[in-house]
Amino acid sequence: MSPGILLLLLFVGAPLVELYLLIEVGARIGAFSTIALTVFTAVLGGLLVRLQGLKVLFRVQEVTAQGGIPAMEMLEGAALLLAGLSLLLPGLITDTIGFLLLIPPLRRALIIAFLRRYANLRPAPGPEGARHPHAPRTLEGDWRREDDDR
What we know:
This protein is mostly helical. It has a domain at 39-118. The chain is built from 5 helices and no strands. The protein has helices at 3-29, 31-65, 71-88, 92-101, 104-118. Helix 2 (31-65) packs antiparallel against helix 3 (71-88) and helix 2 runs parallel beside helix 4 (92-101).
């Protein structure tokens, strides 16, 4: 599918589907209830994104303090940003996507699936393959003692 068609579907098709669903829900439960539901999901989603964002920030600080690279935590932060954005947009589909991204195991699984699909992941170089970042390293080399005249 060409990028132009994809963008057209994203920016025209998705809002039309959201609008249709909001009209259908409004017809069944009433206009005021539908508006209240939309505002409620935005407020609740904003609070949940804030709480989980702080947890991710603390994990980033913890991993960095241990000398690691907080790659997964940074990607989780980006996913939380997407969740917050989708929860602020009015609509039932975007709210569902936002709330699904707030489930930590699902969020991590989606990130890993995305990386496997679109990232060029390779094992770390070396004979031992992928190595844990905090594992001790052995350096090979020759040495001699300078103060020993024997």
